[in-house]
Amino acid sequence: GLNFAPDNDGKTFIALVNGAGDRVIDARIFEPRPTHLGESEARVPDGDALFQDAADPTPGAANKVTVNQDVVLSEIMYHPLDDDSRGEYLELYNRGAQPVDLGGWSFSDGISFDVPDGTVIAPDAYLVVARDPAYISATYGLAAGRVIGPAADDATALASFGTLADSGERVTLSDPRGNVADTVRYFDGG
User: Is 23 helix (H, G, I), strand (E, B) or coil?
Assistant: First the structure.
């Protein structure tokens, strides 16, 4: 059976218990989010350890998440030869047939960055995300619109963006609903 116990904060404790009601089989604290109305929380794939915040409602069927996976991390410069963190960047590639509006997408793990509203990546096109967009644009001769990142004069944004670990780590790109669009674990090899 299921037991529901809402509290004063709008959270609900949900427990799946055995038939006798004396053993918890699984439990979850659910907090409805106004940004995810009409969506559910689900373990994807079924039985996974973690819940995803914005899954498709699929009562009586396998859990699933609809996420645009046309945009992928295609290149990571995490350890420039001169050890200058201004040379670090991530490159995104749209392998799909349609433009993708990346406004509200975000990076977590490795760096922390919210893609600005109005950022669109065309089909078969690349977009570079850099700690220092002006430096990357000048170094590689890229048009300013092809490189995004934190404002150079915003110390808080730069600190939040962070730097990529030279020995390796995971970088994750998520859509506006928080669902993972792509994730890459990079590391030194040899």
Answer: coil
Q: What is the pLDDT of residue 1?
A: 46
Burial class of residue 18 in the structure, from the number of CB atoms within 10 Å of its CB (0-12 exposed, 13-18 middle, 19+ buried) = exposed
Per-residue CA distances from 135 to 86, 96, 152, 187 (Å)? 7, 29, 10, 24
User: How much is the pTM?
Assistant: 0.75
Q: Cα separation of 26 and 57, whole Å? A: 20
Residues 181, 71: contact at Cβ < 8 Å? yes
* Number of Cβ within a 10 Å radius of residue 155: 10
Structure tokens at 34: 């106004």
Token readout for 12 is 């609900």
